[in-house]
Write a structure and sequence with these properties.
There is one protein chain. The chain has 233 residues and is of the alpha/beta class. The chain has six helices and eleven strands. The chain is globular, with a radius of gyration of 18 Å. Strands 1, 2, 3, 4, 8, 9, 10 and 11 form an eight-stranded mixed beta sheet that branches. The protein has one domain: Glutaconate Coenzyme A-transferase.
């Protein structure tokens, strides 16, 4: 295989160079499309003082909630955190710093960071605590606030299929924040269900081109359901 092969054989290799105090951008929405094995490896490593950028913090005992158990996360930048009692406890006790960000703004912060755009103006959050202390400009008679983009030392992403060159396809709603997160890491690691040989993926179906991806690992996934809702029998 050529030097473009990005497949690694272990989680240790996948997260080599991850160290205390780094910023991690994590894909996923709730428990859908989260890089379960990579999160588990961070817990195993015991890396601390982390800033984690993610739509949410998982749930108690699963997803990013595993990292809260060992106080590995110092700061969360997220848009929704209502499914995690431990998160609430650490926030109220002052153990955890939290920067709540509107969901669309968070997605654009990742996308802009990956595109090399340092900041952008958005109307979302103007006149609320989200906009306090931020630069305001008026466009076409409407006020907008300046938001800084986000990049991370690592991006951890969950895909459906990838080839050995790092081209990735996501499955249905598991796309969520994963494509934006994948662009915004200095080192992007993608955990997938299946690795195929180059040329097996339809180029028109690829969501994340391999140019953004540094490492690919094949994982095993529990795919836990966050909120199970069924109709009466």
């Amino acid at each position: 295989m050529s030097g473009f092969d990005k497949v690694v054989g272990s989680y240790e290799e996948a997260l080599a160079e991850l160290s205390d105090g780094m910023t991690i951008i994590a894909g996923g929405f709730g428990l859908c499309g989260i890089p379960e094995g990579l999160i588990g490896q961070i817990k195993k490593m015991g890396t601390r003082g982390l800033t984690v950028v993610s739509n949410n913090a998982g749930v108690d005992g699963f997803g990013l909630g595993l990292l809260l158990e060992d106080r590995q996360i110092k700061k969360m930048i997220a848009s929704y955190v209502g499914e995690n009692a431990l998160f609430e406890q650490q926030l109220l006790s002052g153990e955890l710093e939290v920067e709540l960000t509107p969901q669309g703004t968070l997605a654009e912060k990742m996308r802009a960071g990956g595109a090399g755009i340092p900041a952008f103006f958005t109307a979302t959050g103007y006149g609320t605590p989200v906009g306090e202390g931020k630069e305001v400009r008026e466009f076409d008679g409407r006020p907008y606030i300046l938001e800084r983009s986000i990049t991370g030392d690592f991006a951890i992403v969950k895909g459906w299929k990838a080839d050995r060159y790092g081209n990735v396809i996501y499955r249905h709603t598991a796309q969520n924040f994963n494509p934006m997160a994948a662009t915004a890491g200095k080192i992007t690691v993608v955990e997938v269900e299946e690795i195929v040989e180059p040329g097996e993926l339809d180029p028109s179906q690829i969501h994340t081109p391999g140019i953004y991806v540094n490492r690919v690992i094949q994982g095993q996934f529990e795919k836990r359901i966050e909120q199970r809702t069924v109709r009466p029998a």
